[in-house]
Amino acid sequence: MERFKKASSIIETLKQQGHEAYFVGGSVRDLIIDRPIGDIDIATSALPEEVMAIFPRHVPVGLEHGTVIVVENGEPYEVTTFRTESEYEDFRR
């Protein structure tokens, strides 16, 4: 739970900038079933360029998929732009 508390500042900052943002993925599942938490992922309405402008400590790792790693409180967090199912289908093999 402590890792989510640290990461919540990213979500709050994105919301203050007018974007939606949510915890997503396996870390949420792991929290619910009381498993050790690995990576924490965040989904947002902000575009990668907006995420990089908001957070000075970032690594543009997967811009083609809308993903930026934001380093906050000494921890890396993957922040990914929302995508629609039709966009997702385009990347399926």
Automatic annotation (TrEMBL):
Residues 21-92 form the Poly A polymerase head domain. It comes from Bacillus wiedmannii. This is CCA tRNA nucleotidyltransferase. Belongs to the tRNA nucleotidyltransferase/poly(A) polymerase family. The keyword Nucleotidyltransferase applies. Transmembrane segments: none annotated. Its cofactor is Mg(2+). SUPFAM superfamilies: Nucleotidyltransferase (SSF81301). It comes from the Bacteria. InterPro entries: Bact_CCA-adding_enz_type3_sf, NT_sf, PolA_pol_head_dom. Gene3D superfamilies: Beta Polymerase, domain 2. One of its GO terms (molecular function) is metal ion binding. The lineage of its organism: Bacteria, Bacillati, Bacillota, Bacilli, Bacillales. Keywords: Magnesium, Metal-binding, Nucleotidyltransferase, RNA-binding, Transferase, tRNA processing. One of its GO terms (biological process) is tRNA processing. PANTHER family: CCA TRNA NUCLEOTIDYLTRANSFERASE 1, MITOCHONDRIAL.
